[in-house]
What we know:
Strand content of chain A: 5-15%
CATH topology of the largest domain in chain A: Alpha-Beta Plaits
Shape of chain B: globular
Number of helices of chain B: 10
Oligomer: heterodimer
Largest interface: A-B, 17 and 21 residues
Number of helices of chain A: 10
Amino acid sequence: MEILLAFLIVFAIGLILAVILTLAAHFMRVEENELVKNVRCALPGVNCGACGYAGCDEYAKAVAENGENTNLCIPGSDCVAKEIAKIMGTEYKDVKELVAFVNCNGNCDATTSKAHYDGQMTCRAANLVYGGPGKCRFGCLGCGDCVRACPTGAIYLNNGIAHVNPDICIGCGLCVSDCPKNIISLVPQTAKVWVMCSSQDRGAVALKNCKNACIGCKKCENACPSGAIKVENNLARIDYDLCTACGICVDVCPTKCIHRI
Amino acid sequence: MENFKTLIIILMSSVLVNNYVLSRFLGICPFLGVSKKLNQAVGMGISVIFVMLLASAVTWPIQYYILDTLGLGYMQNLLFILIIASLVQFVEIVLKKFIPSLHKSLGVYLPLITTNCAVLGVTINNINDKYTFTESMVSSLGCGLGFLLAMVLFSGIRSKIEESEIPQSFRGLPVTLIAASFVSLAFFGFGSIVENLIGG
């Protein structure tokens, strides 16, 4: 008899709770915006933040509710942009695919250390000790903070400096913000010519520190037929909107710091 | 006045002396799982306080008015789990509908707490200690605050651990467990302090 009572009580309480929950779920359902959900499904979901929003959810919300551009997802590139444009019923806009690029070629053959660093092997820590152990105060420290930041494993260390494999890179820019030297930049995937140096030292100093340095001689600036290269602060910079990848700058560079595929 | 003093003692002792995580070793799972970052630890702690208060408020009358009158005290564990789980679900639905901002900030922690043993522990201990309704609410508040305190303290310690060089074999969970045991040992120092401070 007693077991029956216990059974009934538990059953009754369970039933009451179940009814309350069902009713609550039914009457207090929150209508989720279908568009947001669909856009979110189309996004890759890596939450990299390359679009400028805190994550894929935020971007989906901005697209669906505030009419944000549909071509901001760089990892997803064209196919995601097409998908979102289709969901939103707007015209498809091309995505400017970006890849990360390490603007330094100060490998172990070109430059040496000014001191022996024996601390924690992260770039951030090494940079705190007089700007790192390398002779060039602008160059890659080679401890691999960017390698650890990369969600796709596109960055590898070779001969003391970091390299990006552009085929795997999704252009999220996480490495850019993790590099204490700020030498990683996002360049258009179509770029064919790069300045592999970040040194803003005067030419003689830069060359003394590293054989592969840009010495700011302006030969490339004068040779460029489309005016895409400018030398600022002793460092050549390429404007990729103007660059035609003709390769003249690569040929005239005396230190061979401009590279081409 | 005497009553008020009892409440203060209950509050202080459940925060410091009988800290649920560090002295009674309940709720270790979120303590180790969600204490990596400070803001997560705070979010989890606040959610726990909220759920503990709510759960005690509901289970206390059920124990005294339903279970005890029918002589079914032994069904306590089963029913409390059932009630806490449904309660948390219900609260989540209500929050999502009426206070979306709070729902967003409590976020994933609410469903995580559904089966947290610390919440069940608080409700059962309130009954075992024969607290009145007010006392059991104060005790739940104290336990929640104690949980929050433990989470915040430990998230600070963990961020220190992450910066330091640790021998290979201790990295990750081992060093976290050792650190947790040290914090727990430190909390044993509070034993009997509270009664002497306030009780006199």
